Amino acid sequence: MCAVVLVPVLKQARGRAAQSDTPIVAQPQRSNEARLEEAIGLARAIDLTIAQGLIVAVNQPRPATLIGTGKIEEIKEFLDEKNAGLVIVDHPLTPVQQRNLEKEWRAKVIDRTGLILEIFGRRASTKEGTLQVDLAHLNYQKGRLVRSWTHLERQRGGAGFMGGPGETQIEADRRMLQDKIIKLERELEQVVRTRQLHRAKRRKVPHPIVALVGYTNAGKSTLFNRITGAGVLAEDMLFATLDPTLRRMKLPHGRTVILSDTVGFISDLPTHLVAAFRATLEEVLEADLILHVRDMSDPDNAAQSGDVLRILADLGIGEKEGEERIIEVWNKIDRLEPETHDALAERASGRDNIMALSAVTGEGVDPLMDEISRRLSGVLTETSVTIPPEKLALVSWVYSNVIIDERKDNEDGSVTLDVRMSEAQAAELERKLGNGSKPEKEDWER
Q1: What confidence tens digit (pLDDT) does each residue in 259-272 have?
Q2: 306-339: b or e for each residue (b if 16 or more CB lie within 10 Å)?
Q3: Which spans of this chain does the record mark as coiled coil (predicted)?
Q4: What are the CA-CA distances from residue 138 to residues 144, 176, 243, 265, 292 (Å)?
């Protein structure tokens, strides 16, 4: 289908922002051109043919149509000229505004929220993802039931001929939608309980969790594939992946961690989606370490970073906590000019919480893995552990959870391991060994 993308720019809102003294002003502002490029990218993500993208100045938002009558006439002529049957407005539209614009332009009109919901509906592949998208879509539809059933009069109700008036068609539709919403919410409650059980099981096996977050198309899935060897779909496309993926991986020193690839964030993420995907996004809250992936080749990356941090704050990860748990990953440095590349790499090298890399070429990935290992290791202590023959099954646990420096297989069938581990790991190993050999005290205090 041929579509036209409109990006309304509300001059009044920008003027108020410029005069404001609130800290929000310090947040990087997204350029109009970047907004248009992103909106076109969203439309292309569902295989639409874009006839044209337009930036439309709005001096005074109209309650009935958002934009003025003069602009509406201009766009109508443009749509007729391009023979476009779909208009995508990169701005929230009320149900009345959407209906009026469709009448004026004689074309289908969807706003930013509707477009993102459409993309998510196509991308969801698991049962959980489909349920979340369906719930968000129904909540969106419920608020947009406008009176399009004008050919139907109020139905007669009651048992007899003189019974009271029945419900209108729009009320019947709203009731059916509400019934579907309740059904989906119950199914999602089961999903939440299942996810909580999975988290509880993971806590019993003390593998740290590392979560990838970032703006959509920042390269999270490419990085995920690079460091885990997984085959997750990774394309240069907004919301190429939607359903979260978890994989085990080994760090350079042998420790096993769980890496989680989450759905990409975006500016003005619809509240329906945030609510529906909360069970998925809460995976980030459980993470021991968060990798915030940024596309440094995008001129708009500072504003995108601000959007991501705001969503993390909404989830409960504040600025102070974020400093301890978040590593900024400056991705796609292979796309930069040599001078910009070198300057950015030098800036990153002087800071502990920033790593510059290219997930495509692999440049900088090894230092990132070392930093993850360092962050998750805690205070490691060298010690020696002898595992008796009757408990050799513990050797596998030791290899999966601590750093092994040397192994010696003894004549009596026992195994002696020189290891480096944290105090918590040592306590867990002692518990598992029971009356068997324990880490030697003098080695532990080294």
Answers
A1: 888 777 888 777 66
A2: bbbbebbeeeebeeeeeeebbbbbbbbbeebeee
A3: 167-201
A4: 10, 10, 19, 21, 31
Q: 377 near 419, Cβ under 8 Å?
A: no
Residues 6+ apart with CB under 8 A from 438: 385, 430
Quote the CA–CA distance of 250 and 256 in Å, as a whole number: 4
pLDDT band for position 164 (cuts 50, 70, 90)? very low
List CB contacts of 362: < 8 A, sequence separation 6 or more. Answer: 226
One-letter amino acid for residue 251 of the chain: L
Spell out the SS3 assignment of the chain: CEEEEEEEEEHHHHHHHHHCCCHHHHCCCCCHHHHHHHHHHHHHCCCCEEEEEEEEEECCCECCCECCHHHHHHHHHHHHHHCCCEEEECCCCCHHHHHHHHHHHCCEEEEHHHHHHHHHHHHCCCHHHHHHHHHHHHHHHHCCCCCCCCCCCCCECCCCCCCCECCCHHHHHHHHHHHHHHHHHHHHHHHHHHHHHHHHHHHHCCCCEEEEEEECCCCHHHHHHHHHCCCCCCCCCCCCCCCCEEEEEECCCCCEEEEEECCCECCCCCHHHHHHCHHHHHHHHHCCEEEEEEECCCCCHHHHHHHHHHHHHHHCCCHHHHHHHEEEEEECHHHCCHHHHHHHHHHHHCCCCEEECCCCCCCCHHHHHHHHHHHHHCCCEEEEEEECHHHCCHHHHHHHHCEEEEEEECCCCCEEEEEEECHHHHHHHHHHHCCCCCCCHHHHCC
* Res 362: pLDDT: 93
Nearest one of 289, 328, 325, 333 to 308, comparing CA atoms: 328
pTM over 0.85: no
| 234: phi then psi, degrees, rounded to nearest 5 | -135, 105
